[in-house]
Amino acid sequence: MSQNVGQISALHRYPVKSMQGEALEESWANERGLLGDRAWGVVDQSTGKIASAKQPRLWRRLLECHARFTEPPRAGQPLPAVQITTPDGAQYSCHEPAASKPLSLLLGRQVVLSETSQPEARYEDYWPDIENLSPEGFRDQLTELPVAWMVPQGTFFDFSSLPCHHHASARGAAGGSAGQPDRAPAFPPEHRAQLGRRCCGFHRERVARPDAAHE
After folding, report:
1. What is the extent of the structural domain holding 139?
2. Is position 98 within any domain?
3. Predicted confidence (pLDDT) per residue in 11-48, tens digit
4. Predicted confidence (pLDDT) per residue in 170-208, tens digit
5. What is the count of structural domains for the chain?
6. Alpha-carbon distances of 101 from 40, 49, 107, 112, rounded to whole Å
7. Which end of the chain has fewer CB atoms at under 10 Å, N or C?
């Protein structure tokens, strides 16, 4: 028996790991997350590691880039092209080999875009010196972790293929408080939930905001 535990108030997909993504009304989803989410990653050619904004010293400028699908992905079909917009407004397709050159210039390292995460792929995660945020013993520490550690292999996720952030945690990360408008959090949530209200709508393998139109 299903139980209503909350409501999805915002839904986002991030076609390229650590870049800004796109807001959605609905999306197909399975054990690999939202269809097309983290479909691409940026690989550091000198180390083979996956670029992640969780290591801001090297990769913070990835957050200045935006990625979106040129058309909505459809279940059971090849993913459409992903378009990247760099901070200067230039646009590139992930499938174009030339797209790696402007990213390398932006990041100051030789990188390449990839559709597949190798089983041995790893990324770096910096834990800031902030009380109640970083685990004890990890504050102001840089760790190296395997990509897709707790999710299906071949993806560019870290610990979860469908992260969910409660409104209260998102508001706290943005510095807001109860009764104040939420600001967009610095981290990328797949969806933000308001628990205690009616649950988000699941249609077969599709996840959607309750007010989204269904086919």
Report:
1. 6-208
2. yes
3. 999 999 999 999 999 999 888 889 999 999 999 999 99
4. 555 445 444 443 334 444 555 544 433 333 333 334 555
5. 1
6. 16, 18, 10, 8
7. N
